[in-house]
User: Fold this.
Amino acid sequence: MTEELKVAVERKPQGAVLYTKGYINNVGGEEIANRAYELMDDGVRILLLNLRETKIVNSIGISILIEIIEKMMDTGGKIAFCCLTPVIHKTFQIMGLANYASIYENEETAIKELGL
Amino acid sequence: MTTTAERQMELTLPMVPDIEIAAARAVGNLAREMGMSSEHVDEMMHAVIEACINAREHSGCSDNRIYLRFLGTSQGDGSRVDIWVTDHGKGFDPDEARSHRAAPGTPHKRGRGLQLIELHMDEVEISTTRNGGTTIHMVKYEKRHHDGENSKYEKKS
Assistant:
């Protein structure tokens, strides 16, 4: 059985928003990484991941998200997340992501705070 | 207080990619039938996913199977779901597994599954022996309280 993650990109004046739909596992995490690295190569330095349609993440997927955060931090950029389920939010805190990436309740607030 | 076992399920799953989703859906359905809150259901699903991934990635078992048992029990003042995830692999050192840290800038970006299981569940017991397999027994509680004509469940902690 497979659970394919879908990723959509919306460019903003000062960065981009990545929308995920589905399970963030190793394959899904790599898909997000590929899209994020394309955007970073294109000069994007502010990236918002909207996980509104993702209900489950696993620790391998999170480890890949951490690698994306590291790469963005190396470029002096910023990654943020929004629209997390309570359990994913808790999981991100356990895994330490919340110390390195901002988490917003909704996209509107995130865009405003990030200046996207 | 009367205790009644209301739901029980046993699954044997092959160790193939994403099979953890099947296990998570099964326990999610059982927990919903027990009337558990969506947040508790989500926490159990994430814990089962991590337990299955650990079995698939690290057990090194020859039968390539994960054995799961779910038991939902309704008690007078609430309910509980017991989950057992078993593999017939080589076993592991839980203390060593707990020592991994996955924050940016650290070498261990993986290996936090056990911590996630322990933080998502109310009780976790690990039985593991070298080459004798591993069973992770996890429990989630939900206390029921009465509010007029309506009854609802709340988190234990």
Q: What stands out?
A: The radius of gyration of chain A is 13 Å. Chain A has one domain: 6-114. The interface with chain B takes residues 1-3, 23, 25, 27, 55-60, 62-63, 66-67, 69-70, 73, 85-87, 90-91, 94-96, 99-100 of chain A (CB under 8 Å).
